[in-house]
Amino acid sequence: MKSNIKFFKKSKILPVDQFLENVLYNNKFGYYASRLPFGEKGDFVTSPNISYLFSEIIAIWIISTWELFGKPKYFNIIEIGPGDGGLTKILLRSFKKFPEFNSIKKIFLYEKSSYLKKIQKKNISDKNVIWINNFNSIKKGPVIFFGNEFFDALPIKQFKRIKNSILEKNYTLDKNYKIKEVFKKATKTDIKILKSYKTLNKLNFIELPKFGFQVLKKIIKKISKLKGCILMIDYGYLKSNNQNTLQSVMKHKKNNLLENLSKADITAHVNFDLLNEFFLKNGLKVNNVITQKEFLENMGIIERGEIVAKKMNFREQTDLYLRIKRLLSPGSMGNLFKVILAYKFNNNNFAGFK
Length: 354
Prior knowledge:
Elements: E1 13-15, H1 16-25, H2 47-50, H3 52-68, E2 75-80, H4 86-95, H5 99-102, E3 105-110, H6 114-123, E4 129-132, E5 143-148, E6 157-162, E7 165-173, E8 179-185, H7 188-195, E9 205-208, H8 210-226, E10 228-237, E11 247-250, E12 253-255, E13 265-267, E14 270-271, H9 272-281, E15 285-286, E16 290-291, H10 292-298, H11 301-309, H12 314-328, H13 333-336, E17 337-344
Parallel strand pairs: 2-3, 2-5, 3-4, 5-10, 10-14
Antiparallel strand pairs: 1-7, 6-7, 6-9, 7-8, 10-17, 11-12, 11-13, 15-17, 16-17
Helix pairs in contact: 3-4, 11-12
């Protein structure tokens, strides 16, 4: 249990988000600093791992958005949280089929983990792809930000409301170095933030993605200045329901949240109702939140699958259709994953959102 000391550093008590930041992102011992979590050999799979058709659909969506913007001669694509680089690899392959677009697009990858950057650079052999730690180098627009399972991986704060008081959940170590929960009165700053969102007003248990909002504010600032949009796909819910959504996964199986720290993934479900309110509050327009199933079907993934299947043998076709089913099935990723689009543009006729 003494190994738990490192997650607290010099602090005896830490809010949930700061504790998770240490567990997941510390440069020496953090989960994302030491292992490749994606794929069958990792701890979980993402949509790009399941089928390259997912990434092709995103490529088509990006090109259609460029056309919606009037085919500008300067166009930025920024993937936030690019995982193992697999999605961008397929984007690059797909873009080559559209020479006019391919010649003007700029691709940036926003990645926090030095370890994952190395993996991404191995998978993406393209000199035109630029890795960034902030968005300062992007000075011309428009811009498209895209994130798949980006927001769920960012640390969250947790609070509970008891009568007229709001308490924040923290973690601390007992005498045996075992981690335990303690609740302290929330700061005035956080209480003010919580009260500013209608979505959170009636909840007795509240999750606040404060870290995530800080990143999104920088993205919104860039979108507002240069025009453009952000498309985010993540697992989550539409209506808040007082649930603690933190969960841990290790080798594709559920893991006790406070065990195997820095060896298991920890995520939280995304509150899309709150995310929607956040974007509106910060000056962007928002299209209706839809499911991954609706988005991919609207974008023609089934038709694309049928075209690709014609060149396959029966075994390959079976594998392809099983993968598409996993992406679309209401009981799997189809309904659990949601898609949100926030933008600064006069036309809202974006592909995929009927």
